[in-house]
From TrEMBL:
<keyword id="KW-0479">Metal-binding</keyword>
<keyword id="KW-0560">Oxidoreductase</keyword>
<dbReference type="Pfam" id="PF20510">
    <property type="entry name" value="HgmA_N"/>
</dbReference>
<feature type="domain" description="Homogentisate 1,2-dioxygenase C-terminal">
    <location>
        <begin position="283"/>
        <end position="376"/>
    </location>
</feature>
<dbReference type="InterPro" id="IPR046451">
    <property type="entry name" value="HgmA_C"/>
</dbReference>
<dbReference type="InterPro" id="IPR011051">
    <property type="entry name" value="RmlC_Cupin_sf"/>
</dbReference>
<comment type="similarity">
    <text>Belongs to the homogentisate dioxygenase family.</text>
</comment>
<keyword id="KW-0223">Dioxygenase</keyword>
<keyword id="KW-0408">Iron</keyword>
<dbReference type="Pfam" id="PF04209">
    <property type="entry name" value="HgmA_C"/>
</dbReference>
<dbReference type="InterPro" id="IPR005708">
    <property type="entry name" value="Homogentis_dOase"/>
</dbReference>
<protein>
    <submittedName>
        <fullName>Homogentisate 1,2-dioxygenase</fullName>
    </submittedName>
</protein>
<dbReference type="InterPro" id="IPR046452">
    <property type="entry name" value="HgmA_N"/>
</dbReference>
<feature type="domain" description="Homogentisate 1,2-dioxygenase N-terminal">
    <location>
        <begin position="104"/>
        <end position="257"/>
    </location>
</feature>
<dbReference type="InterPro" id="IPR014710">
    <property type="entry name" value="RmlC-like_jellyroll"/>
</dbReference>
Length: 411
């Protein structure tokens, strides 16, 4: 995020000496993206960031994936999914491909271990709950409706103040605002549906570094890649990673709350890109929020049928009134997966029922991927097998399963 910040103790010029009151030299560390060619921050540490005393295997939760074959739309009931309570180790893989993985966890109130995702950025949507994320940059508070953006290789730990439902979007790349929202120098433009005032970075650096000052032999869980796939390592550091006394730059974690997103509406139905909030390599993140709908006198407020020619669409329903979806099984806590190669959209009766509507009271987080998504073990465990047949009202056994006709996809 190209929005410069300076926090804590810094030398007047970069790459020059910074000492404490006793004359001890702080260690300077550059944390940067794309080699030395993109956003970065300089961190000043008490300890040596590369000083490890042990490295062992961290056995990850099941990362296996099952292709969506035979091809069909899917409905996953995340609120029926049992997870561990650790915000990091308790995640269950729901959907994924080689670009992005979606996991879900319902936490307790115990803090997670210190954790580092060395594969890519994380965008964690807070479905419910409050707490903080402690990081090397300081403490980031979170609340319901927040996207928590954590850059790749940022040491952090989750400290829930109450049980929290976390929807983790883990990229193999960086996650950032859409390029069309940004000036050539990185400022969010006037047509963007949010601005820098809506982004909330870390605070409380001094308090955090003091609380960890005397801690040694600290374990850090590191998720990384090998030629064999995604693996985990448990690294033990001589001193606590939260030993940063100051930093400056344009790379750091932050939160953005969907309440601060300003929906873009139009005279006729607007396509999903107007709802985009972030993007990564081969995927985008959108949010569909309560909003006034189309105002043309002959407008059809629900979406037209559309075929995902180049992408799979994942919709996570997080709030609002879903009475209109009665019979489809979709409700708060549901995921719908509409894969490429299959057209989806409104059930015919929903089109007529929507005419004259002036407002939609629904909230959903959407991830569109440009490579096919596969089901994780958590996705398989949470599936409603009747969903695919709800448009026709009957399935292979001619019974229609446990649902009636589906209504419309929010997108």
């Amino acid at each position: 995020m190209a929005h410069y910040r300076a926090v804590g103790r810094l030398p007047r010029q970069r790459h020059t000496q910074l000492r404490d009151d006793d004359g001890h030299l702080f260690r300077e560390e550059l944390m940067g993206e794309e080699g030395f060619s993109s956003d970065s921050s300089l961190l000043y540490r008490r300890g040596v960031p590369s000083a490890i005393t042990d490295s062992t295997v961290w056995e990850l939760a099941d990362q296996s994936r099952t292709p969506n074959h035979p091809l069909k739309p899917r409905h996953l009931k995340l609120h029926d999914l049992e997870t561990g309570t650790c915000p990091v180790e308790g995640r269950r893989l729901v959907l994924g491909n080689n670009d992005v993985r979606i996991a879900y966890v319902v936490t307790g109130t115990d803090a997670s271990p210190v954790y580092r995702n060395a594969i890519g950025d994380e965008c964690v949507y807070v479905e419910s709950g409050t707490g903080v994320v402690e990081t090397v940059f300081g403490t980031v508070a979170y609340r319901q409706g927040d996207y928590v953006i954590i850059p790749r290789a940022t040491d952090h730990r989750w400290v829930p103040a109450e049980p929290s439902r976390l929807y983790a979007i883990e990229a193999n790349s960086h996650i950032h605002p859409p390029k069309r929202y940004l000036s050539r120098f990185g400022q969010l433009l006037e047509h963007a549906p949010y601005c820098e005032r809506d982004l909330h970075g870390p605070e409380g650096l001094d308090e955090l570094v003091e609380s960890c000052r005397d801690l040694t032999d600290v374990e850090v869980l590191v998720k990384h890649r090998t030629s064999g796939g995604i693996v985990g390592t448990r690294m033990t550091y001589a001193t606590h990673p939260f030993d940063v006394v100051g930093w400056d730059g344009c790379l750091y974690p932050y939160t953005f709350n969907i309440e601060d997103y300003m929906p873009i509406t139009g005279k006729v139905h607007q396509p999903p890109p107007v709802h985009q909030v972030f993007e990564g390599w081969n995927f985008v993140v959108c949010n569909f929020l309560p909003r006034k709908v189309d105002y043309h006198e002959l407008a059809i407020p629900v979406p037209y049928y559309h075929s995902n020619v180049d992408s799979d669409e994942v919709m996570f329903y997080v709030g609002g009134d879903y009475e209109a979806r009665k019979g489809s099984g979709i409700n708060v806590g549901s995921i719908s997966l509409h894969p490429g190669g299959h057209a989806h959209g409104p059930q015919p009766s929903a089109i007529e029922a929507s005419l004259g509507a002036e407002y939609f009271d629904e909230s959903a987080v959407m991830v569109d991927t440009f490579a096919p998504l596969e089901l994780g073990e958590g996705g398989l465990a949470a599936e409603d097998p009747a969903y695919a047949w709800t448009w026709a009202g009957r399935g292979p056994d001619a019974s229609g399963g446990d649902g009636g006709p589906a209504v419309f996809s929010n997108s």
